[in-house]
Write a structure and sequence with these properties.
Elements: H1 2-18, E1 23-28, E2 31-32, H2 56-59, E3 72-76, E4 80-85, E5 95-101, E6 115-121, E7 123-126, E8 129-132, E9 139-143, E10 151-161, E11 172-183, E12 193-194
Bound molecules: 2-acetamido-2-deoxy-beta-D-glucopyranose (NAG) and copper (II) ion (CU).
Length: 229
């Protein structure tokens, strides 16, 4: 009995290591939408991006080419939106969500414009311990500010796995982008913005980061501050 449960937990760990979590679907109107219906399909299966200077840091490998074959979701400014994963996050690290306005349609947009940050979920700290609040999350949602200007955008989510981030290019970026059309928006001025690539450096304190020792007492999110509307 005991041996069996050890075996099963070993098997689960091994399977987990083989099959990384992926952000497969958009969550809107309180509903998890179909896998890769509004989310751009990637070509690296479940592997992370590790080079922050690559165009893959925008929408994952293959995520620029698959825009045209991906549907565009209508989402309402002021509503709750987000992304769901095929399995819960099991590495330690933060979640961040960005958006970038398309010059024309979301499906034809390559993400080369300005990106602003909408949400982030990092660790919390309590009596000498670091608690990775994003670990075990299966779905991450946030409120899209009601002043977000209407129009078509790329909505991008990432989990930055930092378990091996104390070495150069050790941070792993699990990324997906959705094509969205924001309706009912306002006249907000989203910012500050970054370019992707460009806005992240391999040496940013939240990217080149030792999560173990000495036990961190703070975490510096890479990228700009969150735009809250
Ligand atoms: C959300 O609801 C609105 C209003 O009914 C609808 O227009 C829109 O298509 C829905 N979006 C998604 C992604 O289901
Ligand atoms: Cu892994």
């Amino acid at each position: 009995m005991k041996n069996l449960s050890v075996l099963l937990s070993l098997a689960a760990t091994f399977q987990g290591a083989l099959a990384h979590y992926r952000w497969t679907s958009l969550v809107a109107n309180g509903t998890k939408t179909a896998d890769y219906y509004f989310v751009r399909q990637n070509t690296n299966y479940n592997s992370p991006v590790t080079d922050v200077t690559s165009n893959d840091i925008r929408c994952n490998a293959g995520g620029l080419a698959s825009g045209a074959s991906t549907n565009t979701a209508t989402i309402t400014a002021g509503s709750t939106v987000g992304f769901a994963l095929d399995q819960s996050i099991y590495h330690i690290g933060p979640i961040q969500v960005y958006m970038s306005k398309a010059p024309s349609t979301a499906s034809s947009y390559d993400g080369s414009g300005d990106w602003f940050k909408l949400a982030q979920l990092g660790p919390s700290f309590s009596s000498g311990a670091i608690n990775w609040d994003a670990t075990q999350v299966g779905q991450y949602t946030f409120k899209l500010p009601s002043s977000t200007p209407s129009g078509q955008y790329l909505l991008r989510v990432e989990h930055i796995a930092v378990h091996a981030a104390s070495g150069a290019n050790g941070a792993q970026f699990y990324i997906s982008c959705a094509n969205v059309n924001v309706v009912g928006g306002g006249s907000g001025k989203p910012g500050p913005t970054i370019k992707l690539p460009g806005g992240y450096k391999a040496t940013d304190p939240g990217i080149l980061f030792n999560p173990y020792y000495p036990v961190p007492t703070s975490y510096t999110f890479p990228g700009p501050a969150v735009w809250s509307g």
